[in-house]
Each structure stands twice: as structure tokens, then as C-alpha cells.
Amino acid sequence: MATQEFLTPTQVAKLLRVCHMTIYNYINQGVMKVWKPKRKTLIRRADIDALFDILRVKQVTEAKVPTPIKEFYTSKEIQEKYGISNSWLYEIAKREKWPKTQQRGKTFWSRKHVDTYFARQQPGEEISEWYTASETQARYGMTLSAIYCLVSKEAIPKKKVGAATFYSKYHFDLAKGGAEPKEPEYYTYPEAMEKYGITRDQLRHYLKYHNITRVKKGKYHCSESVRTLL
Predict the structure, then answer these.
(1) What radius of gyration, in Å, describes the C-alpha atoms of the chain?
(2) Cα–Cα distance between 144 and 138 in angstroms, integer?
(3) Which DSSP symbol is given to 96?
(4) 72: how many CB neighbours lie within 10 A of its CB?
(5) Which member of 7, 114, 123, 229 has the greatest number of CB atoms within 10 A?
(6) Coil, strand or helix: which one is 214?
(7) Half-sphere exposure of 199 toward its Cβ, with a 13 Å CA cutoff?
């Protein structure tokens, strides 16, 4: 086959180590040129080499063309929707590298990036007790600005109900030294795989990538707080 100028689609598939249907798809899409002497489909070796150049250019072109951002929030809309201060907004935007644009002196932020970030911050179902901002102020004598800073710095879980924002009572008390840390909860590998619908390889990737604590009890491995990263 090495000296043949023309190859059949099956031979090309073997040469490239792909399914023969992949070659026919290239042919049908016009990506690969074919020759048909005496009703026989043949592919010239030079056109096989050209195929790699076409695919390489296509990959580079697709990589360089970002998906245009069409939906944006104003800074005020983000503050009202997620109950954050203007300074906190800019701190998060800088850290998360939110795409932005400016029009007539106003800053507009990518709606997709903003919503994705705050979706990750949603509190877990196990949190049952909450403070309002006024309750926090009364208990700890803090200004609203100080509350916002502490919530941001300590990543205290919060939720928004209508126009009101609530903060996890346990996490706030813990940050202020008014609560004892809870013992960490653990999942076995099978429990985490079943709960989040992931394979063992995917779980191992998450554990390694996010540096999640693991302990070994007998022959079983456990992983701490897997739910926080999924």
C-alpha cells in the first residue's frame, strides 16, 4: 500500500486508523476528493495529505472564533439580583475575569458568566438556619459594608428570596467565632458516583484537580464534601 498512488476508502481507513464510515463522511461532505475510474471509488494519496491540512486549518479557525456574547447585565442589575455591593461586584469580576463592555459610560457584564458564577455559589440543601442582614447587624454590631466583606472573604453561603438576602447562620457564626466547626462528612466512592452520576475515573479527576481530602478506612476510600465541587 505504501507505493500505491490511489487507495480505496477501506485502505485509507486502515491507513488513518479510523472507521471506513468516517472516510465516506469526508467524501460526502466534499472534504476529501475522490476518483471514479470504471465505477470504482479511489482516493489519491496526495489528497489524503491535503486532508490533514484542511482539518488543521479548520481547527485553528474554529479555535480563533469565540462565541459572541449577546446578553448582558448592568452593574445595578447584578447588585439587585444577587444582593452584592458595587465594590464586591468588581472584586468578583476581576477574580473571575467576567467579559464586559462599555456603552455611554455604563459597564455591561456577560449575563452567562455572572449567572454561572452565582449558580456555583448556591447553598447546599443541608443549610436550614439563616440570618437576615438586620439580624446579623443586631447580633454582631456590624455595618452592611462589613457584612458584605466578611461574606465575600469567608465565602459564606447565602440565598436570595424576593428582595431579601439571607446568610447561613452556622457559617456566619463560625466566621465570627460563635460556633464550633462541624466534623467533616465523607462519601464512599460508590456513594459519590451514584449521587452525582459520574464514573470512578471522573471522580478521581475531580478529587485530584480540586485537591479534596480523602481518608482510608479499612479497604474503603472516602472523599470529603464532593458535593461542593459538582
Answers:
(1) 28
(2) 11
(3) H
(4) 19
(5) 114
(6) strand
(7) 3
